[in-house]
Write a structure and sequence with these properties.
Number of strands: 10
Number of domains: 4
Distance between the termini: 67 Å
Largest sheet: 4 strands, antiparallel
Strand content: 5-15%
Number of helices: 20
Radius of gyration: 36 Å
Shape: elongated
Length: 486
Amino acid sequence: GWRALLLPQLNRQSLYVYGSEVAVEKECIRQLESGVFVIHPFSLMSYYIMCMMAITFLNLIGIPMEIAFLDGNSGLAWEGFNVFSDTLFLIDVALNFRMGIITEDGEEAILDIKRIRVSYLRTWFIPDVIAAFPIGYILLFAQDLQYHNDDNPSKTNKMMRILMFVRILSLIRLARVSRLVRFFNEVEKVSNANLEVVRLFFRILSLFMMIFLLCHWNGCIQYFVPMLEEFPTDCWVRKENLMNATVIVKYSWGVFRALSQMIALSYGSMDAPTYVEMWIVMVSMVSGCLMYTVLVANATAMIANVDPAAKEYKSKMSRLEHYMTFMKLPPELQLRINNYYQARYGGKWFDEKDVIDTVSSALKEQILMVMCSRLLRKVPIFQSRDENFINAVLPKLDYEVFQEGDVIVRQHVPGDRMFFIDHGQVLMETDSYERELCDGDFFGTCVLTKGKHLATVKALTDCQCFSLSCKDFRDVLEGFPDVKKD
């Protein structure tokens, strides 16, 4: 029944954390056996966080707008939304005492009530309580009193001052930005290699949301401070003739001044700021510097993590350059070594052996089958052979790269390997003929019977080959008596 809403669901995140559907089912059993009301981080109930994010963002936009520009005339709809959001945040504080916690390593969820309570009290409880302070109820009650005291001017003025104080006090609800921070932190915890795009998207989204909120708040402060001074004659609002302008026009001018100060273009107008406005300008300029710092730092971090393989390649090449300089290798040799690395790795550093050794045997066979099977099938001794025999040969292949001009094998020299060309061209030379070989061709099979190479083979271009040791090939044949006999 309703308890199913509290249990972990089968989704990409839960399968990544627990590994399989069976493990997710065991997690459901573990939660049911605990016999307590706990919301699992991967349950359907946790999706209400998305609703909380939308409401939080609307609060962070609407509250400064209401205080600075609406002058208490926000309307019944906004007052109702304030009461609703205050109620929801109070409920959220209570639910967080029952919300399971994702551990730092992301391997399990904490479902113990005592540990959840202690963790929440030590981390987000105080910011959440401050953000959930029910200002909406106080404003609703104060407005009701003002309505009943309209016939008494002294009481009405007193209530107006109380309302203004309460509205300024409602700025503490901007602490709800902590809910956004917690949401993005939780997304970061459950992200993994398969969710790298999602993680990057949320990082960029959070960055732009914070920049937008900073500009928005600065724009509201630009108008709010002169309003507190009751718009003196030298304030920017009177200079721009905005006293009777619409809210949109006032807000647009406020944001324009804030952005002008944050990017250090001007004060937002031709005139110098007043004494009070000077402090606003300094706050905007400092916040703009912080915005630049955060933006550049995050952009640099994201760019650095976009292509880790290329980054690792550059690091390897840097160490190689230092090594060659230290060993005082000739410039021609250094150039050939650099060209080899470029041909071998193509600007990306991967350890093929490490990758092959860490996957399962079934995946290893499939990888090698895709890479090398077509090469083996072109060799007469491997044609029409059993699939099991081919699969036994594939793991014995070694990847090699030869540069243009390299002599791969020499005529009449004892050999121990045969070669299969993946990409590139080579020239096979004997005393009587020459022949060019390219993608898909092979050479060196004669070493199986003759024990030596019958031709000299030189690389005409950068050549990528797979080689098979004669010893490894004979070891494979021992397991296939019929093929060995043939």
